[in-house]
Specification:
two-stranded antiparallel ribbon, about 5% strand, mainly alpha, about 75% helix, about 375 residues
Amino acid sequence: MWATLRDNLEVVWGAALALVIVVLLTPAVGGMARMLGVVDAPGGRRLNRKAVPRLGGLALFLGIFVPALAFLDFGRETRGLLLGAAVATTVGAVDDFRGLRPLEKLAGQLAAAAIPTGFGIWVDRFTFPFLGVHDLAAWIGIPLTIGWIVAIMNMVNFLDGLDGLAAGVCGIAAGTFSVIALSLGKPNPAIVSAIVLGATIGFLRHNFYPARIFMGDSGALLLGFILAAVSVQGLLKTAATVALAFPLLVLAVPILDTSFVVARRLKYRQPVYVGDRNHLHHRFVNMGFSQRRAALYLYAWVAILAGAALGTRFVHPHAHGVWHLWPTIAVAGIAAVAIAASIYMVYLLEIIKLANPRIRRREAEVRERKSA
C-alpha cells in the first residue's frame, strides 16, 4: 500500500517538476536558437508565416532528465534509457543545426535505439493470444525492439508539422502509458511517462498555435525514443494478453499517418525520406482548417483511441472464463466510439475532400508540377 502511494506521488511530482522546468527553460532555448540562426523560415511545405526558432527539444530533454534523476530508481534499465535519450536528442540537435543526410540520421537513430537494448530494455517475452507466454531469443527480441524504437522516432518526427501537434499527441500517449504501467506494477515506466506528460504540457505553453518555438528533430526524436522504449519496458514485457494493443491503440494516429505517407511515396516512386504535404495535418489544413482546429481534431482522435486502450486494460468482459453483461456492453461501447471517430476522420479527409473543388484543383496543380 505504502509503496503504491509513494509511486503515485512520484508520478505526480515528476510530472509537475518537468512541467515547471520546460516552461521556464524553453524561452531561453528559443533565444539561443535565434542567436545561432537555428530557425525555421517560412516557405515550402512549412506552415509558419514567420521565422520560428527550433531546438525546443533541448528544453524538453532537460525537463525530462532532471526529474528522472530525482524520482527514478537509477538502475541498469534507467541508465540505458537516459543514455539512449541523450544520444537521440544529440542526433536531432545536430540535424537541426546543420542537417544530416538520411543515412547519417538513420545511423544515429539506430545507435540510440541500440543503447537501451544493451541495458536490458528489449522484448524478451511476449504473450500471444490463445498461445500464452513465450520467451523470445535475443537474436529476435533485440532487432525487433530496435526496429520498433526507430520506427516510432520517425513517426513522431513526421507528425511534427503543425504547431503543438507532436507535443500534444505525445503528451496524451505518455499520460495513457503512465496509467497503464502503474496498474501493471511498473513504477519506473509509469514515472518516466508522467515526466514526459509534464514536459509536453509545459512545452505546449510555448508551442501551441501560434508557436513561438518548435521542438525540431531534437525534440521529435527524443519523445519518439522515450515513448517507444517505455512501451517496451512497461507494457510489452508483461503477461497481459492484450499488451500489444496498448501501444498500437495509443500510437495509432502517428502509425497510420506514417503508413499512409510512406505507401503514397512508394506508389509514386518518390524517396521515402523526402518531405511532402500529404500528412494528416497537412490534409486538414488543405481543407481549410486552421492550425488550431486541425490540432484539436487530431488530439480528440488520439484521446479517443487512448481511452479505448484504457478500456482494454481496465474493463474485463470475460473475467474468470465467464462473460459479464455490463462490462461487455461497456467494451462494445468504447470500441464503437473509437471506430466511429476513425470513420469520421476518414470521411473528413477523403469523402469531403472529393467534394471540395479547391482541394481537387490544388492536387491537380501539384501533380502537373511533378510531371513537368
